[in-house]
Amino acid sequence: MSDSTSTPAKVDGRRLRSDRSRQVIVEAMLQLINEGNLVPTAQQIANHAKVGIRSVFRHFEDMEAIFATADQIWREGFTGKSTTVDPGLPLAQRITWAVKEIQGHYEDNGNILKSTATRRWRSAFLKQNYAKHQSRMRTDISNALPEIGSLPVSQQEAIFGIMSFEYWDRLRDHQSLSIDDSRALITELLQTLIPST
Questions:
Q1: Cβ contacts of residue 22 below 8 Å, gap of 6+?
Q2: Residue 36 — φ and ψ, nearest 5°?
Q3: Rounded CA gap, 60 and 69, in Å?
Q4: Closest CA to 189 of 84, 96, 85
Q5: Which are the contacts of 78, defined by CB distance < 8 A and separation ≥ 6?
Q6: Segment 41-50, tens digit of pLDDT
Q7: How many whole angstroms separate alpha carbon 44 and alpha carbon 50?
Q8: Which of 6, 48, 120, 145 suits a disulfide with 126, CB 3.0-4.6 Å?
Q9: Using alpha carbons only, how large is the chain's radius of gyration in Å?
């Protein structure tokens, strides 16, 4: 009798400890990436999580499984923070809003995006998720600036390129522009490419 009642409790306790360990490992990876270690090793993750290296691979099949889980958790958190702009606002105000909103996301999550881009060429999961992220960005931009839809395809693609993380990262990292200067440059380009009616 006592065995039948205690066994589920033991199983539940083990499951909770296992879930907690997985969470600690994934959080350690995300923290390392946010600190600038874009592709942390299993040993670095174990050290940061304060667990043994065997514990890492007891909970995850391989490094790709950890990256995939971390990427999924990050994207779920990002999904809940989506906001929209009033479509009735003048174009100039919506451009300013879109640049600030999307580039703010890039600035806050730059290392995560770089890490995903670094590893996606050898991970089908990350490649798929990165493509979904790009699609979502295009949708968000189009919703904020529906005028884009009436432009020639070449101009539309130029706008999406200018609003991409890769372009933002180039301005901030490779060209060493400040956040304000980068936003001003992108805003000016968008105002040139999207004619006001």
A1: 59, 60, 69
A2: 115, -5
A3: 9
A4: 96
A5: 105, 109
A6: 889 999 999 9
A7: 10
A8: 120
A9: 21
Length of the chain: 197
Provide the whole-model pTM: 0.78
Say which residue the tokens 């039948």 belong to.
4
Q: How many CB atoms lie within 10 A of CB 100?
A: 14
In the chain, the amino acid numbered 103 is Q
Q: What is the C-alpha to C-alpha distance for residues 4 and 96, in angstroms, rounded to an integer?
A: 63
Delimit the domains of the chain by residue range: 2-75, 82-193
DSSP alpha helix (H) spans, 50-123: 53-59, 63-79, 91-119
Q: What contacts 24+ positions apart, CB below 8 Å, involve 53-56?
A: 55/21, 55/25, 56/25
Closest CA to 21 of 45, 44, 41, 38: 45
The pLDDT tens digits for 30-82 are 999 999 998 888 899 999 999 898 888 888 878 878 877 877 777 776 655 55
Give the separation between CA 160 and CA 5, rounded to whole angstroms.
59
